[in-house]
TrEMBL record, chain A:
Protein name: Extracellular solute-binding protein family 1
PANTHER family documented for this protein: ABC TRANSPORTER SUBSTRATE-BINDING PROTEIN YESO-RELATED, ARABINOSE-BINDING PROTEIN-RELATED
TM helices/strands, residue ranges: none
InterPro entries, alphabetized: Bact_solute-bd_prot1, SBP
TrEMBL record, chain B:
Cross-referenced Gene3D superfamilies: MetI-like
Membrane-spanning residues: 12-39, 76-95, 107-128, 155-179, 231-251, 263-282
Lineage, highest ranks first: Bacteria, Bacillati, Bacillota, Bacillota incertae sedis, Caldicellulosiruptorales
Name of protein: Binding-protein-dependent transport systems inner membrane component
GO CC term (a single one): plasma membrane
């Protein structure tokens, strides 16, 4: 009895030892590969179908050009991407090349030093990029965190058929008043139709934009105070309230299942909603679902203190600081963003390229959607300075979207909404200040 | 102790080692660490900073969403658990009858539990229950017009509960197994005495399945308190936070705001609440469960 048990124990032990040896030898063989100039890079990004396809074929082309490099693609949707990335950064298992969003830089750099300084690499050519654009968005503590994949602007996506149906001229320059009066007319004419496809998050953009155009400055100041006053806030909430009352926005009680994803709203896909406030980088994807889609500028009020037009990098490509092949990773990023061949494969799957060589290549090949080029250059002319990290804080966004929902459901009046938002902001800002003060 | 016994112990230990390592690393360590973190500010990227009871005080005095999430969670539990268990029992009783092709039905009724609270099913649920969805189209055939399943803050919590009730399969299988074990003599004797069907159900079936009822009640309560996927995907906590559950508050704080310490504190409060409810069910069970083999109980 004991003998057979001992035999099994020995077998189990032997199995464990074997697997350990096997694991080590596998790790060892990786090292051997590296020595013989073979490089394996991991590249992680998020996106939709079109972006995945284009990126994968770009990777294929690169591996064909440089046979010693192997690139493993790790891709998916944006949902949960940042959580995964943070976990990998903490666990020191993040990929070599990482697509990141500019809004994360503030938070990430406050917490640690995760990315290589791209301006120190000979492999990277920075000349094709506009210097101010890099300075505004891509630097943190004097380090170039990542390179912009594209230029992305906030814009209004509108349905041309919808405009035709209600006789709205397409070349119109919109004001906030126009939106209200036009929307009211449309909804009176046919109560199935609404001009705006806005959810709570978009209403929050509207709120910020309106306040910034009126007041200038920042939404949240760097000293953890609010950059707006009660009077202005009441004015915007009154405006938003009117949008709901006149039927400019489809009631939230109907669009509830599509909060956070208005572009999936069946009414929008059917063409019964006219305008969607979104990014230029999502235009191609949205147009695939609504073929008669075009774009126009967001409304800007007269004598605006700031245009509040956001023009920012679509995403950044960064190199992991812990990467063993940082140079090769930088070389790939340089090819991916600056090379003509890459540009022609990738086209505008990450918005209009930020690199001028890539942009020129696409323009020569007529590969850019003229609407995107036009809106991007128009937005660039009126671009507002970038927002600070605090103004993009997620907890503050949650508070605002909750208050907006309560307004939409008639649980709060505009005055109550303004007071509630300010009270909750004050408390939350104190809490954020406490957390960040160390 | 002799040397040979010690060696025997060692062999035994070796056998349980894989499980033991798994338990220590993946269960005990996170369990202990989450308690430690609940007393800290911790953003994952920076080392934790001790703040004493601050997280708990903040939770009960300042966090606007905590009472709301707690209330919603209790509502969710109170709606889903009784509904799910009674529905499971109802179906089990039907499936216990001797009908032709019953095995096929048993399989079919178990299917929803296999699909479970997966993402795909939740998305399907969203399309079924939206204002112009299939459920409303179906209801309109009977003249019931436009119930706003997901858009009305008063109704949404029921709509997401239905998804949980729909996954009644595992409770049902347990009930069914127990129902099959009830000796038929009992029913025959009752029949001879002229008992009605209802009386037989109350006096024979219910007492006989009470241990399984107890088990299901405990398990379903624990599960319902931790529900996340379904409501998160179907409504995202909306409208106006009416389906915002504790688990979502924990998730948001942990992975959206990177307040791991606070999220850990919330988890511990959730844990204690579940513990209290479970203890209550255990205590009360002495009065309503019946075990054939032990008159005195425990």
């Amino acid at each position: 009895m004991i003998k057979s048990k001992r035999l099994i124990a020995t077998l189990v032990l032997a199995f464990f030892t074997m697997s350990l040896i096997l694991a080590f030898s596998l790790a060892g063989s990786d090292k051997v590969k590296a020595a013989s100039n073979k490089v394996t890079l991991r590249f992680m990004w998020w996106g939709g179908e079109a972006r995945h396809k284009a990126t994968l074929s770009a990777i294929q082309a690169y591996m064909k050009k440089y046979p010693n490099v192997r690139i493993n693609a790790e891709y998916g949707g944006i949902e949960g991407y940042m959580q995964k990335l943070i976990t990998q950064l903490v666990g020191r298992t993040a990929p070599d090349i990482i697509q990141i969003d500019v809004t994360w830089i503030g938070e990430l750099s406050a917490q640690g030093d995760f990315f290589a300084d791209l301006k120190t690499f000979r492999e990277v050519n920075l000349k094709p990029f506009e210097e101010k654009f890099l300075r505004d968005w891509c630097y943190s503590n004097g380090k170039l965190i990542g390179l912009p994949t594209g230029v992305n602007a906030s814009a209004i996506h509108y349905n041309k058929d919808f405009f035709k149906k209600f006789g709205i001229p397409e070349n119109k320059t919109w004001t906030w008043e126009d939106i209200l009066t036009t929307a009211e007319k449309i909804h009176k004419k046919d109560k199935n139709y609404y001009l705006l496809n806005f959810d709570a998050t978009v209403c929050y953009y509207l709120l910020k934009t309106y306040v910034l155009q009126k007041k200038g400055g920042k939404w949240i100041n760097d000293d953890y105070t609010m950059g707006f006053d009660r009077k202005t806030l009441i004015e915007v909430f009154t405006y938003i309230d009117k949008l709901f009352k006149v039927g400019a926005i489809q009631p939230f009680s109907e669009s509830a299942p599509f909060q956070g994803k208005p572009e999936q709203n069946p009414k929008w896909l059917k063409g019964e909603l006219g305008m969607l406030w979104n990014w230029t980088s999502t235009f191609a994807a949205n147009k695939a679902n609504v073929p008669s889609l075009s774009m126009t500028m967001i409304p800007i009020m007269k004598n605006a203190k700031s245009t509040a037009v956001t023009v920012r990098p679509s995403q950044l490509l960064a190199v992991n600081k812990l990467s063993k092949n940082a140079k090769e990773a930088a070389k790939f990023i340089n090819w991916f963003l600056n090379d003509k061949q890459a540009a022609l494969i990738l086209k505008d799957v990450r918005g209009v390229p930020a690199s001028s060589t890539a942009r020129d290549a696409l323009e020569k090949a007529n590969a850019l959607d003229p609407v995107i080029t036009q809106i991007t250059s128009e937005a660039l002319k009126r671009a507002a300075p970038p927002e600070n990290a605090l103004s993009q804080n997620q907890e503050l966004e949650k508070i605002a979207t909750d208050v907006i929902q309560q307004l939409a459901y008639n649980q709060l009046t505009p005055v109550q909404a303004a007071d509630k938002l300010m009270a909750l902001y004050k408390q939350k800002l104190n809490e954020i200040k406490r957390l960040q003060s160390r | 102790m002799t040397a040979s016994l010690k060696r025997k112990d060692l062999v035994g230990l070796l056998y349980v080692l894989p499980w033991l390592i798994g338990f220590l690393v993946f269960k005990l360590y996170p369990f202990v660490m989450s308690l430690v973190y609940s007393f800290c500010d911790y953003s994952m990227l920076k080392p934790p900073r001790f703040v004493g009871l601050y997280n708990f005080i903040y939770m009960f005095t300042k966090d606007e969403l905590f009472p709301k999430a707690l209330f919603n969670t209790l509502k969710y539990v109170i709606i889903t658990v009784p509904l799910k268990i009674s529905f499971a029992l109802f179906v089990a009783i039907i499936l216990n009858m001797k009908l032709s092709g019953i095995n096929l039905f048993r399989t079919v009724y178990y299917l929803p539990s296999i699909f479970g609270g997966s993402v795909a099913i939740s998305i399907l649920w969203r399309f079924l229950f939206m204002k112009e969805g299939i459920v409303n189209k179906f209801l309109s055939l009977f003249g019931i017009e436009g119930i706003n399943w997901l858009g009305d803050p008063k109704i949404a919590i029921f709509s997401v509960s239905f998804l949980a009730v729909w996954q009644f399969g595992s409770s049902m299988v347990l009930f069914l197994a127990r129902l099959k074990e009830i000796p038929s003599e009992l029913y025959e004797a009752a029949l001879v005495d002229g008992a009605s069907r209802l009386k037989m159900f109350a006096k024979i079936t219910l007492p006989m399945i009470s241990p399984i009822m107890f088990f299901n009640l405990v398990m379903q309560t624990i599960n319902a308190f931790q529900e996340f996927t379904g409501p998160y995907i179907i409504t995202g906590g909306g409208p106006v936070n009416s389906t915002y559950l504790l688990s979502m508050l924990i998730y948001d704080n942990a992975f959206k705001y990177f307040r791991m310490g606070y999220a850990a504190a919330l988890s511990w409060v959730q844990f204690v609440i579940i513990l209290i409810f479970t203890a209550f069910i255990f205590r009360s069970s002495t009065y309503w469960t019946y075990y054939e083999y032990d008159e005195g109980r425990f």
